[in-house]
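User: Quick one: structure for sequence A, then sequence B.

Assistant: Sequence A:
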Amino acid sequence: MNKHLMRQAQQLQAKLEETQEELANTTLEASSGGGAVTVVVTGQQEIKSVKISPEVVNAEDVEMLEDLVMSAVSEALRKSKELAASRLGALTGGLKLPGLT
C-alpha cells in the first residue's frame, strides 16, 4: 500500500471510531399508545430505558401492554438503525462493511 492510501485508510478508521462513539452517546426515543410506553435506545441499538405509564398496567389485559412495549421497542430500534446507517453510510460511501451496523 502506498503512503497516501495508508493515510486515507487510517483517517477513515479514525472517523469510523469517532462515529461509533457518537452513536453510542446518542439516544433516540419512541413511544406507543399515545406515550403510554416509551423506550430510549442508543445509536448502537442498546436499550437504555423503558417507561410504562401506570394507567396501562392492567392484569386482565397483559397482551395489550406487551403489544405496546413491542411496538415502542421496534420503533426505537428502527430509528437507531436508520441513524447508524445514515452516519456510517456517509463515511463509507454506502459500502456495507461487516460489523458496522
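Sequence B:
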Amino acid sequence: MRKSIFYLVDVFAERRYAGNQLAVFMPGYKYSNKEMQSIAREMNYSETTFILSAKPKNGGYPVRIFTPGEEVPFAGHPTLGTAFIIREKLQRSRPQQVNLNLKVGQIPVTFESIGKKRNRLWMRQIEPRFLNTLPASALTEILHLAEDDIDNQFPIEEVSTGLPFIVVPLKSLQAVEKCRIDQPKYFELIKRIESKAILVFAPQAIEPAHQLHVRVFVDYYGIPEDPATGSANGCLAGYLIKHHYFGSAEIDIQVEQGYEINRPSILYLRGKIENGAIQVWVGGEVVLVGKGEWF
C-alpha cells in the first residue's frame, strides 16, 4: 500500500546535480517520530522534510526536519526546498510568500522572479544570537590548520539563527581547502559548547562573482561535509554585519560552498541593522529533480 509521495530537489543550485539534495515528503500519511527518523536515515541526505498538513495552520504549513542522525529545529536548504514544493504542488495560486511553521518558529519564504520560469527564494531568519568566542588553538588542531591560517582580526565565535555554528574566519582560499576534521578532538569540543557544527570561510573564491568561499562540517548530524547550508550562512551573515567584515553594517553578497565535494552551490546573503537588531536573509534557487512513492 502506498503511504506517501515524495519529491527530490537540489537547493542553492542553478542546475541539476548541484547544490544540496533534499527529500520532501508530502502530507497524506501520519508517520511516527521513529518512522520519520528511519526514513531520513534511509534517504541519507543532509536533511529530509515532512509536510504535516496540506493546508496552512496558524498562518503557515507545519513542517519537521530530520538529518540522518536526529531532528533539528531549523535548517536553511530544507526550508527553501520545502517552500518550493508547497508552492508548486499544494498552492495553485502560486503566492509570492510561503510560511513554514518549524520548531524554531514561523519562517517566511518569499519568491523573487529572476527570469523566465526561474525564482530566487529568500528566507528571513530569526535574529542572530552571539554565544561564546573560542581561542584559535581550540580549532586549529580540529581543522588541521596552522595558527597563521586563522584571520585573527576577527573572532572565532558561536552564532545561532535557530541552529548554532562555530564561525571560523580564515585568511585564504587555500586554508579553507586544506581543512579536514580530527573527529576525536571535534567531538570532545562540542561536548562543552552549544554548537555542533563548524563553518570556515575566507575572502577569496573560485568564481569571480562570489565574495566568500565557505565549507561547513557537520559530523555530529551524520554528515561529514554539507554542500550548501542556509542556516550556517545565516549565522555567517549576522557575523559579517556585527563585525563590519566588509567595512559596513549592511551586506549583499554571493557565497560559494560545496566545491570540495563536487556539489557547487551558490547562496545569496543580505543583511542590515534596523532598530538596533541584525536582520538577515539567505537566498538561492531550487531545482526539481525527481518524484517517488514511499511504501
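The longest helix spans residues 76-89. The chain has six helices and 18 strands.

User: Thanks, that's what I needed.
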